[in-house]
């Protein structure tokens, strides 16, 4: 199995808005910035000495870099569930779409960490390494077929035991106008990308509730927050994944009192897989991501024992704010910045299902 290289940045370096935001953030939270802010605010007070300005700047820097992050961590520990240690040799992880792309890169990390992994896919698992062969099981499973999902879940419990983690990773894109799609294509996208999540959660969550521990992770998308032409089924399904994640997070915590069961979700931009071939949102606004970048972030979330929301690239963190604009204004801004309306016009990607 290939070595894992974590030296590469999660988002490609270069002239893009992510790089600009990263350096701007560093500058904004630097001691120099704190002093400039204090100096600007005290200009009208000629009696303020340089020593007092330096002291105020130090206090401002400490507040923004130490105190506020500390308060955030405390609030997270009080209101966002209990962090549990992760001992990978005790974890049984179910990964859908684990034979390629993000899923395959995640499985590699899980195996190297010592976890036992159940891979659900319609494509054969490509790794044959004697060092890890006892840790994984491959199940040829069409996750749109409920009877097959139930049978596969039973087989996983028989082969490996009750799953402690579930990663709903499998997804497809059919880049057509809605009226050009067949009924089967519409159903396929919704069933793979969204309906399967319901069925898989229903299969594996009960054991997590009994054990009072577990972690369920999902792959959303930047289009979980905004629609786009020629991808209505994909956008709709990913929006549904976001709401399912949020609903289950609250449902499990408030109705079952299971604060030790964590929920994580990733909202990636364009990923460099065949699934998104030809999609063009512009490298400045949405630099193309490597599959291992998403896998690395997901693995870190699972390893932390704490539910997380992952936005990649960094500009995706702004997407939740898009809801404050009307749909027309929102799409107009995104079209101006990244060519949203024409992004799918050159799409030539494939489906694995």
Automatic annotation (TrEMBL):
One of its GO terms (molecular function) is oxidoreductase activity, acting on the CH-OH group of donors, NAD or NADP as acceptor. Keywords: Oxidoreductase. It comes from the Eukaryota. InterPro entries: NAD(P)-bd_dom_sf, SDR_fam. PANTHER family: PKSB, RETINOL DEHYDROGENASE 10. It comes from Coemansia spiralis. Pfam families: adh_short (PF00106). Belongs to the short-chain dehydrogenases/reductases (SDR) family. The keyword Oxidoreductase applies. This is Uncharacterized protein.
């Amino acid at each position: 199995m290939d070595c894992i290289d974590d030296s590469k940045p999660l988002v490609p370096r270069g002239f893009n808005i992510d790089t600009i935001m990263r350096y701007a953030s560093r500058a904004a939270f630097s001691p120099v910035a704190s002093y400039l802010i204090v100096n600007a605010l005290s200009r009208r007070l000629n009696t303020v000495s340089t020593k007092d300005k330096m002291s105020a700047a130090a206090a401002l820097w400490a507040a923004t870099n130490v105190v506020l992050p500390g308060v955030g961590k405390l609030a997270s520990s009080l209101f966002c569930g209990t962090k549990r240690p992760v001992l990978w040799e005790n974890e049984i992880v179910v990964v859908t779409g684990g034979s390629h792309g993000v899923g395959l890169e995640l499985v590699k990390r899980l195996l190297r960490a010592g976890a036992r992994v159940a891979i659900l896919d319609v494509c054969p698992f490509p790794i044959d390494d004697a060092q890890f062969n006892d840790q994984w099981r491959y199940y040829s499973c069409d996750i749109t077929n409920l009877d097959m999902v139930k049978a596969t879940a039973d087989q996983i419990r028989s082969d490996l035991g009750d799953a402690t983690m579930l990663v709903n990773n499998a997804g497809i894109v059919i880049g057509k106008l809605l009226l050009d799609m067949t009924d089967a294509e519409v159903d396929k996208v919704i069933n793979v990308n969204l309906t399967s999540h319901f069925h898989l959660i229903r299969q594996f969550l009960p054991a997590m509730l009994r054990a009072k521990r577990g972690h369920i992770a999902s792959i959303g998308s930047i289009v979980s927050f905004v629609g786009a032409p020629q991808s209505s089924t994909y956008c709709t399904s990913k929006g549904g994944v976001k709401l399912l994640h949020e609903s289950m997070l609250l449902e499990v915590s408030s109705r079952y009192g299971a604060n030790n069961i964590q929920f994580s979700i990733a909202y990636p931009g364009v990923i460099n897989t065949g699934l998104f071939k030809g999609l063009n949102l512009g490298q400045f606004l949405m630099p193309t991501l490597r599959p291992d970048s998403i896998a690395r972030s997901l693995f870190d979330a699972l390893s932390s024992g704490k539910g997380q929301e992952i936005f990649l690239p960094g500009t995706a963190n702004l997407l939740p704010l898009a809801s404050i604009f009307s749909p027309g204004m929102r799409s107009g801004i995104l079209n101006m910045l990244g060519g949203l309306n024409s992004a799918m016009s050159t799409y030539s990607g494939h489906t694995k299902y």
